[in-house]
Amino acid sequence: MLKDYNKKRNFNKTKEPIGKVSKKHKRLIFCIQHHIARKDHYDLRLEWNGVLLSFAVPKGLSYNPQDKRLAVKVEDHPLSYKDFEGIIPKGEYGGGTVMLWDYGYWKPLSKVDLKNGLIKFKVMGKRIKGLWTLVKMNDDNWLIIKDKDEYHLYDNINKFNTSIKTGRTMKEIADISTNITLTNPKKIIFNNPKITKEEIFNYYKLVLCRMLPLIKDRLISTVRCPNGITEDIFYKKHMENIDGYLGCKKINNEKYYYIKDELGVLSEVKMNSYEFHIWGSKVNEINHPDILVFDLDPDEHLSIKKVREGVKDLKKILDSYNLKSYLKTSGGKGYHIVVPIKGITWKEARKITKNIAELMSVKWPEKYTSNIKKSSRKGKIFIDWQRNIKGATSVAPYSLRLKNKPRVSMPIKWSELDKVKPDDITIDEAIKRLKRKNPWEDFPIK
To answer: In terms of domains, do 328 and 190 share one?
Structure first.
């Protein structure tokens, strides 16, 4: 079914997904992609029999039932295409910029008759809703028409000119792949296994769909590594903004910086920043943290079983205070527990987290300490609460760690605690996990 799709594409050049028939979803999915190639048009895609039935709609859809818009049937696409956004290289089939313009679910209201050419259906998207009809004229030429319902004449859909996925304009999507060009892309950053600057750049491009909402508009510091991890590594927390892609915040006459969008992250990677650390507050609420972070830092001789016990003990205490918590690997020795919170000051954040850490050290003195001194940690887990002080940072979710082994600080489900070690997640594993349901899907983001 996807033979034509695969035949038309060179997957060594395009980042489009390889065509494979997939298991159907419980609810039929649909998407619409804005596609500026040889001609500007929209692509309507409807899940059916494990693929996406695809129609190129030159003028886009209209809510006016009087508008009969041409929809040209093109080759079926794989279901994985529903997430595709980016650049198809010039010279490749469909070369140009692709934006994910809408997505959701659809339901056929008649037999899906591709041969005789009639599909009546209901769409439940973010921007496109209600009853629609596709009717065949000849060969691959169809018409798509809005049926009368509570949504007809509902809205002017032309006002939507940003991605439903990332909020980017077509220009911004193109800027990521054309404007940010790497210097020394083949430079080896990690030796075991060998990982290049280009591979790290491509990793961040892929994970930004989940990483960006968690770090956007937060002051950051980064760890820079210009010549590989065996050479000089240093922290950067003050503003340079050579490329103009970052936001700036002045605090006590010093300039700090924050991420505004994807270009900010990628421009930092271009400048050899590969590890990202974030404040616990947004830049417009600098004195009011909205996350608390506990870093469980074990003595190096402790077993993973003991470390996991520590995570479970901390979660029980947080649960007893009705504090919903989220788990991620550190990419190093321990785990991080993140707690979204509202309406507190830094002083209160410090008090809350310190009290919880001290409670653990009093309740289980043989297992935990809240004392930062190295001498107090022997055979114990240090419950590091000091990430919750104004100006302190914690490693960002999805950030790469600049340690001997290239590992990721990865959000995981609580049910995975006994299966995933703190340094288990490689770059390849992190990318594979993007195809799974987001373990922090309900993380509250302003």
So the answer is: no
Q: What's the pLDDT tens digit per position in 276-318?
A: 999 999 999 999 999 999 999 999 899 999 999 999 999 999 9
**Per-residue pLDDT at 262 exceeds 80:** yes
Global pTM reads: 0.69
Residue 144, both tokens: 């798509």
Conformation bin of residue 50: beta by default, left when phi > 0, alpha when psi is -120 to 50: left
Helix locations, 179-290, DSSP H: 197-215, 262-270
Where are the extended beta strands (E) located within 163-267?
A: 188-191, 194-196, 218-224, 234-236, 246-251, 254-259
Are the beta carbons of 50 and 35 closer than 8 angstroms? Answer: no
What CATH number is attached to the domain comprising 234? 3.90.920.10
Helix spans in 281-345 (H): 304-320
User: Taking CA 323 as the corner, what is the angle to CA 321 and CA 329, rounded to the nearest 5 degrees?
Assistant: 130
- Structural domain including 424 reads 291-389+410-433
Is 212 part of any domain? yes
Nearest alpha carbon to residue 409 among 326, 321, 316: 326
Q: What is the pLDDT of residues 15-28, one digit of tens each?
A: 899 998 887 778 99
- The answer to whether residues 340 and 283 touch, using CB atoms and an 8 Å cutoff, is no
| Shared domain check, 161 and 12 | yes
Phi first, then psi: give them for residue 300, nearest 5 degrees: -65, -15
Report yes or no on 397 lying in a domain. Answer: no
Q: Decide if 401 is inside a domain.
A: no
